[in-house]
Structures are given as C-alpha cells and as structure tokens.
Amino acid sequence: MSTSITIPNEYGYVLLTAYLSTLVGYWHLPNTGRFRKAAKVPYPNAYATPEQVKESKAHYLFNCAQRSHATFLEHQPQFLTTLLISGLKFPLFSSAMGVLWCTGRVIYAKGYTDPNQENGKGRMTGTKIFYIGTLGLLGSAFLSAVSFTGLGDRVMELVK
Fold this sequence. Notes:
6 helices, about 160 residues
C-alpha cells in the first residue's frame, strides 16, 4: 500500500509561519545580547552566577533573557515538526496556531524580562498563549498523521 501526499495550495502559509519562527529565534539574539551587555557578563559565561544575581537586577534580567532564549530553542524543533505535519491536512489552522505560538514566545520573552515582575512571573501570559498554539498543533498533527495511515478509514469500516 502506498500513500500519495498532496500539498495543499494553502501550505505556503505553513511555510511562512515556519519562517516567522526563525525570525523570532533571530530576534532573541540581540534581545539577550542587550541584557548581557547591561549585566556585563562576559563570554563564554552562559549565565550570571547566583551571587551576581543577588547583587544586581541587571544580572537577574540577563538570566531571564537567556532562559527565555533557551526555552525557545528547546521548543522550536517540536513546534516545527507539529506545524509541518499538521499543515499537510489543516494548513490554515496550523498557520494560525503557529502565529499564536510565535506571538506567545515574544510575549513570554518580553514578560520574563519585565523588571517589574518578580520571579519571572511576567512570562506567564506568553506561556498561556504559546501553549494554546502548542496544543492545537499537537492535536492537529496527530489527526494529520493518522489520516495517512488509513486507520481512520478502518475504524469507520468497523463501526458500520
């Protein structure tokens, strides 16, 4: 048995959304660099030490910026995988969930580095937004993948 995959006409939106996530990743670089410069944390140190964080808000905010960049990098491979799989069957929905995810990641980073929020709690709004996108993509990627197995057709035959 073979399966043909037809790329929907709207799949270009999925590809543009994947590209958008790359731009968000590149946005993190100068954002984190700005906080690194303010905290005067030299390379190759990835983070300020706990002692430095206790001494200075700039060090704390650098660690928050660095952590928001790291969590972006930790999540992006799964995001792209689910986006591209989901988009084969649900391109507009996938793109919308992807734009939501990207928007949430920026709000997450901005909130995490908000000096008026304690313990990085400013990131929570962005977390809620990008997890809506994540859950939408997880579910639709699963449905998309199952549709290529023929399992859905077999289940429907059994139900008849």
